[in-house]
Amino acid sequence: MALPPQLKPIQHHLRTAQEHDKRDPVVAYYCRLHAMQTGMKLDSKTPECRKFLVKLMDELETMKKELSDNESISQDVVGNAHIENYALKMFLYADSEDRSGHFHKNLIKSFYTSSLLFDVLSVFGELTEENIQHRKYAKWKAAYIHNCLKNGETPQPGPIAMEGEAYDDEFGAEGGGPSQAPENLSQSQPSFHGHPSNQPPVSNFSNIQIPPGSHAPANTPAEVPHSEADPIKPVPVPRTMPVVDPSLLSNTHEGDMRLTPEDFTQAQKYCKYAGSALQYEDVGTAIQNLQKALKLLTTGK
């Protein structure tokens, strides 16, 4: 069923869902859920839009039944951790390739798709400031590198001063090629949230660090078929084992301390984040989150 023009802003999230149906059904499910929620706000009254959104709801219901045993679908906390971890992994992969000066279409796709997945996190509530910054930077980088390569220029690696760039919908066109209507660029990506020249200064991104063990996993989410692109073989980053905070080892639960329901929920989140990080063999992030959980449970802070 063709996407009605009024719902064009959700086309990239739906495309990302299709790409992940087999690779990661949880990502596909939440991409469609975000698309449906956004679509309802855009236009749920026009008959063609209503028909499209009802069909999308049916797809979501079917997926929910098929994935009913998956905690990432049945529990928001786990689903949030799954999508955030996936988006961050893709962002770090793209950022690492960018800083190394390895510019290719897969890199552009990785930056752009990570920004879409940060969008998807809104189904769980407000985005953190860090994720908002990552989303803006990823969208801008995708546009900047794409336009440089299109114009035969060599992009500058890593964070640089952000100038006005417009992403020309390369992955949105039906044939996967660039749009032929440059005058419509500003409308083609309404999720830019304003002109890129209004994006935050680059100083916000100059200190983005690649955590130990954050190399792209064997099944890098960025691996999409591109006949023009060479196969990407991520280079593992040497792991350094984080030091465990010795004060946490001797701490026991203080008898007169009362933990609130919110404390238990937060501790559970930390543990879920750690579990997700271990799926990607990201030991550093796992230890960091487990330490946060342990500190909260032993000190209430």
From TrEMBL:
Q: Which GO terms describe its biological process?
A: late endosome to vacuole transport via multivesicular body sorting pathway; protein transport
Membrane topology of the entry: Peripheral membrane protein
Ordered alphabetically, the record's keywords are: Acetylation, Cytoplasm, Endosome, Membrane, Protein transport, Transport
Q: Domain Vta1/callose synthase N-terminal: where?
A: 10-151
Give the signal peptide range: none
Annotated Gene Ontology cellular component terms: endosome membrane; multivesicular body
Q: Where in the cell is it found?
A: Cytoplasm; Endosome membrane
- Please verify whether the record's keywords include Protein transport: yes
Q: How does it assemble?
A: Interacts with VPS4B. Interacts with CHMP1B. Interacts with CHMP2A; the interaction probably involves the open conformation of (polymerized) CHMP2A. Interacts with CHMP3. Interacts with CHMP5; the interaction involves soluble CHMP5. Interacts with IST1.
By sequence similarity, the record places it as follows: Belongs to the VTA1 family.
Q: What is this protein called?
A: Vacuolar protein sorting-associated protein VTA1 homolog
